[in-house]
From TrEMBL:
<feature type="domain" description="F-box/LRR-repeat protein 15/At3g58940/PEG3-like LRR">
    <location>
        <begin position="1"/>
        <end position="27"/>
    </location>
</feature>
<dbReference type="InterPro" id="IPR055411">
    <property type="entry name" value="LRR_FXL15/At3g58940/PEG3-like"/>
</dbReference>
<dbReference type="Pfam" id="PF24758">
    <property type="entry name" value="LRR_At5g56370"/>
</dbReference>
<dbReference type="Pfam" id="PF08387">
    <property type="entry name" value="FBD"/>
</dbReference>
<dbReference type="InterPro" id="IPR055302">
    <property type="entry name" value="F-box_dom-containing"/>
</dbReference>
<dbReference type="InterPro" id="IPR006566">
    <property type="entry name" value="FBD"/>
</dbReference>
<protein>
    <submittedName>
        <fullName>Uncharacterized protein</fullName>
    </submittedName>
</protein>
<feature type="domain" description="FBD">
    <location>
        <begin position="46"/>
        <end position="91"/>
    </location>
</feature>
């Protein structure tokens, strides 16, 4: 899915509401086309309201193909702040070597996530950016 396209993100929220007992969520992402407005921000996720599967059942969330894009951070923050039983958040970087600016963006987003108020109390919640040595943080 592409976080820069509002209709695709809305479909994700519909999916999560249709399957209220999801314990593991894998999200395969794509780069946003240049024509996107990227209006899926923190406000969008705040207006989404509570989602039962995220709030009460989601234990593991895996985001595939992360490159430090700003459009994905509000979703990751929404999960971290609303998933009451989240045990692990795994962020998998895009295969191959990322340019230095993208690596800095990934590191910055990771810091933002670590400073979030984790609904699960952050006990046992880990952020693992596969592809970065020593990057698992509990």
């Amino acid at each position: 899915m592409c976080f820069g396209i509002r209709n695709e993100v809305k479909m994700l929220t519909i999916f999560l509401r249709c399957y209220p007992n999801i314990e593991t969520l894998h999200v395969q992402t794509e780069e946003a086309p240049e024509f996107t407005t990227n209006d899926v921000n923190t406000k969008f996720w705040q207006e989404t309201g509570p989602i039962e599967s995220v709030k009460s059942h989601l234990k593991t969330m895996v985001l595939h193909v992360f490159q430090g894009e700003q459009s994905k951070l509000p979703f990751l923050m929404f999960i971290s702040e609303n998933a009451g039983v989240l045990e692990q958040m795994v962020i998998k970087l895009k295969a191959g070597r990322l340019p230095a600016p993208a690596l800095r963006a990934v590191a910055d987003k990771r810091k933002d996530l670590l400073s979030a108020k984790w609904s699960s109390g952050a006990v046992g919640a880990a952020i693992c950016c596969s592809g970065l040595r020593g990057s698992c943080t509990a």
